[in-house]
Amino acid sequence: AVRLGATPTRGAVWVTPALDRPDAAAATLDPSRKLDAIFEPSTFALYEANRSVTVTMKVEADLAKTRTLVVEHVVVACDAAFTDVKDAVRVTLEPPPARHSDDDGARRARRRFNKRLAVAGIVIGCLVALGLVGWGTWAARRSLKKKAELERERAFVVQEQVVLARERIGEFQSAFAVVRGDVFLGLGALGRDLHHETLRDRGELIFYDGVKDVERSRARGEVTLFLSHQWLGFEDPDPCGVHYAAMCSAVKAVSAKSLAPPRDLRVWVDIVSIPQRNRSSQRLAIASLATFASSTDYFVVVAPPARHSGTGKLCDRATFRSRAWCRAEVMSCWARRGAASMFVFSNNGLEPFKTSGKEFLESLDVFDGDLTCCALGHPDRQPCDREEMLQPMLGLFAEIYKHRRVGPCRLSRAASTGLRCVPCDPDDGETKDAPDDEEPPAVLAEQRTPWTPRATPPSDSYSVIEPLLEKLYPRTFEWVAEDSDGRVVEEIPLFGDLIDAAKYYVDLGDEPPPARPPDFAPGSNARRRTPNPHAKHGRRWSSRQSSTRTTRSGSLDTTTTHGSAHGTSRTSPFPSVRTFMRSASTVSARPPRPHGTPSQ
Fold it and tell me: HEC profile for 164-223?
């Protein structure tokens, strides 16, 4: 309100309110301080002292903070006393309360929501990450635990295979069935109607339950004779009687050489001594072939020239050497008894079996020999006879390795080159005998009689086979089956790492095996194979037991050697423990072949 302090003596007083000049100048210089002030009334007149006028000032400005304005009054008066006005009015402007539009509120709300969402996402992400870390830790521990369990089971399977092989090579797994020499000479023939069961029912077979029984019979003056021959038919071993006539001559020659009458001879021949009707009993007898052959006093190869009734091919010494089972018998007798008791019967009588040269080394390559089961295409997907031979041959290798000579030997060079094997002189400094505390196999520590040659196993037999380990004991082999859909070829584990495992456990001796032995791949389990839905006929495909890639040419994409370091990681075509199922000692149900024998 504006009021005069006194009534003017004359005229009136005209008052015009206005902003202070510094504020106006500041607004001009600083656009952010620019403001517009409107006074109502803009000008008024006062005539007397008791009249007051209320002036309203409206200000338009962008105020971010409180601001003070000074309002001056421009006075025009008739009375000079009222022209000097010194008082000014100060006006404080407060910034108005913030007013926001709806869009600004929505944006702020979205920003708040986004912040909360980001925080929630971070929290959830941390929780998920912690959950994944926990699950990953659990899964890793579970995987490591399962891996350790599988490795233990796998090691147990390998150890069981090696231990069983070593135990069974020293003892019969089936009764050692023989026939007296005079009874054998009176049989007249060998054939499908005159076999093991026939002589058993007649009471003409003599059974020895163990190696000790054979030793006791030797002490009584009895002489055992092992006749090894090749079958001349698929179901009949000697259709024309050619081999039987030669065997009778061989029995007489051994009787003369040993000074033992035929009644004191104990003759072993496959068709007579191996069960033919019961497949399980037959398999047990086959598993004992190595022990049978090495427990006899005389080992005679009977291989006169004759025609095979099924193929028409000539069968002689060369074809005898090509048969896998014949090779197994030769190797078993040579490795455990030496060549002194081994003979070949010919028109000139008994001739010493030659243990030198390429032909002898060929006779040691058991698993590269011919087999009837392979020629027939493994009907009903039966396992190969190579798998049947695995355990006795593994036990024989462990025995050879245990009683090996220590040091180099010229026989190893001869074996690798196929040259004549020259026995080492133990005094020439080139070899060193095994330690004195090494006892020979129990089967060789026997009481001798004047009628039989002394068993002299070659102390350097390991030196002969050492350069040929990879060939003599293959890790895998090709299993070929012929069925209604065609020809199927699969790569099957055979020895796997069992040779390395046998060395490891032999070197371990009587010490208990470690908690975590080296990871050896197990060998074959000799089981009937189920059809593989992924196998294609007419091509080479890997077995269900195998994880290797096989090609049309059948070459494996990894190569390993038996001399590799224990536990070395490698790509392996061998079964895991879960697919391995059972060890090689398992006897599977397999229908018997009619009158079949391993020497076919």
Answer: HHHHHHCCCCCCEEEEEHHHHHCCCCCECCECHHHHHHHCCEEEECCHHHHHHHHHCCCE
